[in-house]
Amino acid sequence: MKKVLIGLDYNPNSEIVVRSGYELAKKLGADVCLIHVLADVSYYGVNYPSFMGYEGYNELAVDLNVIAELREVAKNFVETAADHLNDPSVTTHMADGPTSTAILQYAEDWGADMIVLGTHSHSVLEKVLMGTTASHILEKTKVPVYLVPIKPEKLQK
């Protein structure tokens, strides 16, 4: 194991995931890359037509620069997370699109030997209807996945 890719999102619990993945990578002597995916970015720049009597999107005249601003905020987020580890060898990657697809694609491109993800406590109904990023990645991955459980009782310690 020489390369560990750690996925993080805006959930404050991501700190636990990043720390756990980083500690594992260091024990393995592996390089670390933090990845953050900005899903469905194009949604924010679309000027939708009226529908169901709602005129809001036409009147708002959504600024197309919002996409660039979202990317900049996300880039700053992942770089700040990397800086927080106080290890200049940690790299970062920003991606757009469906989260699981983007993580799997970058894992392949970067040559990751392991992917580290958190498992947020979503409701059973949400898991049944939508699945989770972790389960989608587990279905399609070609490399091992290290899952860090995030549960309320773990956060209290």
Automatic annotation (TrEMBL):
Q: Does the keyword Methyltransferase apply?
A: no
* One Pfam family linked to the record: Usp
Recorded superkingdom: Bacteria
Sequence ranges assigned to domain UspA in this UniProt record: 1-149
Keywords from UniProt, A to Z, are: Cytoplasm
Q: Where is the protein situated, by its record's location annotation?
A: Cytoplasm
Family note: Belongs to the universal stress protein A family.
What protein is this chain from? Answer: Universal stress protein
Gene source species: Christiangramia sediminicola
